[in-house]
Amino acid sequence: MSAVVNVTGIAIIVLTRKQRPLLLARQQAFAALCAQRGLVAELAPDDFAILGPIPSSWLTNAHALPDHSVAVADFTQPSGKHTAFFSMLTFTVAGVNVPFVAVARRGQAGITLGRPPTIELESTDFDRQFTVRSEDRRSATMLLDPGLMQLLLDCEQVNFDMDGDRVLAYVNRGAERPHPPAEPVELEMLFKFLDGFVARVPAILHSDYAAEQ
């Protein structure tokens, strides 16, 4: 028995040593992309509050803008015998207060806890590819207009939750195509989603679901 334990321990050490250069390469590439956007390696306690309480050890490669309107991180989420690996980006949409809505690609589990009712939109093509959950169908339908649906279709593997004025976009890294660690393509896609989302927020949300002054 002790021999088996020793062999297992050695295997873990060897694997960790092999992964260390890959993790360092990812960390450096992640930081370089963040620096281009003005993000620094510092988080505020509530940057990812939409996830609920989580141990800080579950977050790596965390960066944020100085005003914390945008934050990114890799997120490791243990779940029973399985562990999920995500890259995520959260940002603020000023002036709105949208009831919680979750949009995930079919076959992928959401990142936040809770399962509000599933709703269907008028686009059968979108409904085939995404699951939309919300307690408030009206606001979800307003948010997911043709422009925003097209953005999701264009941003491969990106899912998102929105609660109030805060959006959490994320990529399940287990569902991605293999790529070198030094190429954090999921972060590039999340930044693309951020730019497109802000430009496409329907104006009606600012009137019908306006944030309190």
Number of domains: 1
Annotation field: number of helices: 6
Secondary structure class reads: alpha+beta
* Spatial shape: globular
Cα separation of the termini? 66 Å
Describe what you observe in this structure:
- By secondary structure, this protein is an alpha+beta fold.
- The chain has one domain.
- The chain is 37% helix and 26% strand.
- Strands 1-2-3-8-7-4-6-5 form an 8-stranded antiparallel β-sheet.
- A hairpin with a 5-residue loop joins strand 1 (59-64) and strand 2 (70-79).
- Helix 4 runs antiparallel to helix 5.
- The N and C termini lie far apart (66 Å).
- Mean pLDDT is 87; it is low at 1-9 and 11-16.
Keywords for this entry:
single chain, 6 helices, 37% helix, 8-stranded antiparallel β-sheet, 213 residues, alpha+beta
Q: What is shown here, in short?
A:
The chain is an alpha+beta fold and 213 residues long.
List the helices and strands and how they pair.
Blueprint: H1 2-36, E1 59-64, E2 70-79, E3 82-92, E4 98-105, E5 118-119, H2 124-129, E6 130-134, H3 137-143, H4 146-154, E7 158-164, E8 166-172, H5 185-200, H6 203-208
Antiparallel strand pairs: 1-2, 2-3, 3-8, 4-6, 4-7, 5-6, 7-8
